[in-house]
Amino acid sequence: MSLNDTLKNLRENGIDEAKRAERLQELNDLRVNLLGKKGPITKALRGMKDVPAEERPEIGTLANNVKNDIQAAIEEKMSELNDKLVAKKLEDEKIDVTLPATKQVQGTRHILNQTIEDIEQFFIGLGYEVAPGYEVEEDHYNFERLNIPKNHPARDMQDTFYLSDELLMRTQTSAQEGRDMEEHDFSNGPLKMISPGVVYRRDDDDATHSHQFHQIEGLVVDKNISMADLKGTLDALCRHVFGENREIRFRPSYFPFTEPSVEVDVSCFNCGGEGCRICKYTGWIEVLGAGLTHPNVLKMSGIDPQVYSGMAFGLGPERFAMLKYGVNDIRDFYLNDVRFLEQFKGVN
Amino acid sequence: MKISVNWLKEYIPVTHTVEEMADKVSLTGIESGPVNLGEELTNLVVGHITSITPHPDSDHLKVCQVDVGEDTDIQIVCGAPNVAEGQYVIVALHGAHLPDGIKIKRGKLRGQESNGMICGLDEVGVPAKYMPKEFENGIYVFDEPQTPGAEVYDLLGLKDKMVDMDITPNRADTLGMRGAAWEIGATYDEKPTFKQPELDNSKISDSQDVTAEVTEKELVPDYLLRELKGIKVGKSPLWMQRRLWNQNIRPVNSVVDAANYVMIEYGQPIQAYDLDKLQTKAITVKLAHNGDKLDLADETKVLDKNDLVIAAGDQILGLAGVMNGSVAAVDENTTNVLLEAGVFDGASVRKAAQRHDLRGDDSNRFEKGVDNGIVDEALVRATQLVDQFTEAKEISNVITGNFTKAEPTVIKGDFSHINHLMGLNLSNDEITKILKRLGFEVAAAGDALTVTIPTRRWDMSIEADVVEEVNRIYGYENLPNTLPAGMETRGGYSKKREFSNKLRNILLGAGLDEVINFSLLSKQDVEDFNTIQTEYTKLLHPMTEDHEYLRNSLIPGLVRNVAYNQARKNNDIGIFEQARIFDRPTDQDRPNEVEYISGAVSGNVVADSWNTEAQQADFYYVKGLVEEMLAFTNSDAEFTFVATDEYDNLHPGQTAKVLANGQVIGFIGKLHPNYQKAHAVAETFVFELNIDLLFGLNKKNVKAQSAPKYPSISRDLAILVEKDVENGQLVADIFANGGKYLRDVNIFDVYQGKNLKPNHKSLGYHLEFLNPNDTLTDEEVEKAFTLVKDSLVQKFNVEIR
To answer: Mean pLDDT over residues B336-359, rounded?
Structure first.
């Protein structure tokens, strides 16, 4: 057999063997056996010396081609076997994705704190400082400085837990107003603060009353504060909390420490103002009280009401949360059943 | 107060429905709701009983023939004891609708045809307690002949339409019809007109029996009396009675009704006394003596020296401004009457009414204030009405105990400032017009404005009040929405709040739910966890024993939450609270308010599942939470955990104080088994940390360092040591002897039990050495490791294994 034929035979057999291989090891062996230094091709090429000089380049090219072709056949088969192996592995590793997860549990912030923090963030964005006050407060700050002297009928509106003649559990976060006003340096700009916190009233606990609940007081004192500023601020707040399409309205009211005083209603987020059970078919829901800071309150803090004016508002996180999430019983907030708490995961 | 539209029409034209009025008044003045009485009522007419025969088969039923304006009388069977021939009565015809869904049908009563029902007032919607007493147990009978077949609604006010105004304490000026007419009138730009009451001058006599003296003049600015003599007390006219019962006032007699009527009309309470029942004719308004008694119809009140009373000599006639006693009550036999119009100090009346639990129409008005400007006119009006109803022979002049001339309030302001506070730019004319609508006098001089406020609006005293009036009548709905436009301010939380938020986030991240508990606890609760050893702070007048003391720890609340949940099969619980506790030093009345973060973990912290094994909460789990919080304090303090058995309600062998640089800042512990049992909780681990103390620690000064380039070398150490030696002691010693390249010591094995020397435990430590600047050699490490082992052997008598 001519060298030429020998090489062609080797190619034919080699490719054939590669195609028949079933395991990667066989292919590796084949490569070493056929293409290695001790393999038949190398051996065959030793017969080159018997080939006439003019045919040698042709044989050389053929030999290279044979090597390359066998190599390609081995690689092709290798990749085919690899694919099969991977496919098998993937098949073996298939899992039931509907089995339950390995729990990665985050705790849930209390819904009242979520509500409070949502409102805090809104006001922080408008440049308000968050300044919680004392829960045990002096009669002076809780009442007197808010234009509620002793014997004022408004003291009846808030039955108070006293610790002594002069100390009490604050009945309203407005108690912080006097402290903030007397501490504020107006040369640094306006006073803009909200004061969130716990307040206490002598109420029997029932579905709508709690002897302890939360309030957020807001106060802005500057040279140009107006009722329109109050309305714009609370309008933006109510849109933030209850939805972009909400509107608010003011109704005249009375608080000893604001004049004018208003109650603020938000258009019903349930029915959009058409009238439903939640808004008692009025289209409006009362959400907070507000007004311009009473000149007496400013004066008692050493602020000239002819130069400065203030706006104040007070809102109840319990009420906000009850309205927004349909909580029917205020006591649920304080029983802390985790099934109640955890339903509010991530709402704010 | 409910404002009847029919009554209101005497003062202003009314063209709107009560629904529209209530809405409008709510938005411009006072929260109001519409009241439509008797909407359901139908087929109620006047009937004239033409004859009565006994029912053949009943003792108490009667068969009445009743003229109801039709061609023939109808027969109605009636069981009322007071039914009689000739009466004009209320008849519910066949098909009539009564309150509470009752429908009247013709039918037979014990065999006798009955074509309707003869009704009592309470059956047609007048509450039983406000209808005249004489009709309490029977049908209503008209005093005067009426037209048979005519509808009864207007006669009895059964379908009155009213605007119910729910006033705030400052708007007591609308607790009278006239004040309400001003308010509603201003809303609709209608000026009310009132008739001036007049007396029959021919009856006025200069003689008078009584004298009036006021000893506490500052508490009684006005005290006026008038006598009417030779009166005949009867019933007041139906138009007055129906107005009274619709005001929830029971008609009594013509004198009492007139007095009550004037209170509703003017807002000025009026009292009436039977002149002949007075012990002496010297009326004094004075403070009572301790032990004085006031006899009311159904009880006797014992008075004290704070009570302002009306007295005739020693006879207490009434508690001033609150309630009159029965001793000089006007009845049908009264022939001489004394009418009183006084003004009594609000605070004094409020306290007396509270003290004696006697709040009512009078005290409600005096507490909030009455119009000092109409006291005399109201008395004239009451006198006029009584005279009109009782045909007095003689009327006295006004007998004055005290009289203070009421002056209008003058408020000065600037148009520009008023606009400025509203955020509006109304013209001076517009503002003036609005104020005039309210019945105020306005004088403008350039920007300056002077508003003269009539005495009926005693709530008005300063410019801000004027701002409110202008703004509300102009309409809050017309205000633009703006934001304060002053200098920019930087908002945000306090540093401490940001700090505590960091700690909260760690616990949330670890899966603990946040709770909020009450700050007021029982005595037992504050005694159970007084770990800070504070004086208790107690409420003066607690409502219940459960909420009597200010909390000195968050743990009792958390334990209550665990119990509440576990009772509901929520067995695996991890909760925390960030709130204040109250720490009162002995020499202080006021407790310090200290921020704490505390938690409780009970049950599994990792649930049993198809691919995980349950992991129970234990001391070390909670310690892990606390350590991570401490790491996030970014403090350079040295934190240590020291075993303690000094807390009664914690497990003496599984509790540690947490210290920062030697100062106690909290604790970790397992609840004592007895405490767990008493509170019905499973094994529960708790912790608390004082945020204020943590916040006050020095902050670490973090300087960045590159991650080490050189490899570390590690050694494992297994030792046998007596059981009571603490890991903390050993680790501290290892560090003390491990040289500067000892970077980390981890315990990977703790074993106590079989195959060990008694009272010993086996511990395994992994030590890691690293030189950040060079490659460590084995020799260096071995040298350090030997020192570590030698020291442990020497100091703790360990056996190296």
So the answer is: 94
Task: Say which CATH architecture domain B42-156 belongs to.
Answer: Beta Barrel (2.40)
Residue type at A152 in one-letter notation: H
Partner residue facing A107 (CB), from B420, B513, B580: B513
Amino acid at B648: D
Q: How far apart are the first and last CA of chain A?
A: 87
Q: What is the ipTM for the molecules in this complex?
A: 0.89
Cβ separation of A112 and B516 shorter than 8 Å? yes
A149 touches chain B (CB under 8 A): no
Amino acid at site A245: N
Beta strands in B650-792 (DSSP E): 650-660, 663-671, 684-690, 713-722, 742-751, 760-769
In whole angstroms, give the CA distance from residue B208 to residue B200: 17
| Tokens of residue B653, six digits | 């062998």
Task: Indicate if the pLDDT at residue A114 is higher than 70.
Answer: yes
CB B92 within 8 A of CB B158: no
Q: Is B766 helix (H, G, I), strand (E, B) or coil?
A: strand
H helix runs in B337-414, sequence order: 346-355, 361-368, 375-390
Asked whether residue A79 falls in the same domain as residue A118, the answer is: no
Last residue of a domain, one of A60, A92, A124: A92
Q: How far apart are CA B98 and CA B526, in angstroms?
A: 59
Does B607 touch chain A if contact means CB atoms closer than 8 Å?
yes
SS3 at position B236: coil
> Are residue A81 and residue A162 in the same domain, yes or no?
no
Optimal mutation site among A259, A306, A307, A318, interface B, most CBs of chain B within 10 A: A259
Q: Is residue A194 part of a domain?
A: yes
C-alpha span between A253 and B31 (Å, rounded): 8
Band (pLDDT 50/70/90 cuts) for residue A279 is confident
A&B contacts, CB < 8 Å: 259
Q: What is the pLDDT of residue A113?
A: 97
Considering Cα of A115, then A120, then A121, then A126, what sign does the dihedral take? positive
Cα dist from B500 to B177, B297, B495, whole Å: 57, 62, 9
- Structure confidence by residue, pLDDT tens digits, B439-452: 999 999 999 999 99
The pLDDT assigned to A158 comes to: 59
Residues 6-25 of A with CB under 8 A from B: none
A151 and A72 together in one domain:
no
Q: Could you give the count of Cα atoms lying within 13 Å of B508 in the half-sphere of its Cβ?
A: 18
Using a pLDDT cut of 90, give the percent of chain B over it: 95
Given A103, A226, A263, which is nearest B423 (Cβ)?
Answer: A226
Mean pLDDT rounded to a whole number for chain B? 95
Task: Note whether residue A150 is domain-resident.
Answer: yes
Distance CA(B511)–CA(A103), nearest Å, equals: 10
For the domain covering B201-402, report its CATH number. 3.50.40.10
A339 — contact with chain B (CB < 8 Å)?
yes
Q: Which two tokens stand for residue B487?
A: 């200098």
> Based on the domain organization, do A149 and A216 belong to the same domain?
yes
Q: Which amino acid is at B774?
A: D
3-state SS, residue A3: helix
Residue A198 belongs to what domain range? 111-342
Answer whether residue B299 shows pLDDT above 70: yes
Could you count the other beta carbons within 10 Å of the beta carbon of residue A205?
Answer: 17
B418: its two tokens? 């008023």
Tens digits of residue pLDDT in B642-651: 999 999 999 9
Chain B CB contacts of A119 below 8 Å: none
- CATH superfamily for B495-695 is Bira Bifunctional Protein; Domain 2 (3.30.930.10)
Tokens coding A246: 């909400």
The upper half-sphere exposure of residue B108, i.e. CA atoms within 13 Å in the direction of its Cβ, equals 5
Q: Between the CA of residue B377 and those of B196, B342, B598, B718, what are the distances in Å? A: 8, 12, 67, 104
Identity of the residue in B564, B576, B582 whose CB atom sits nearest the CB atom of A335: B564
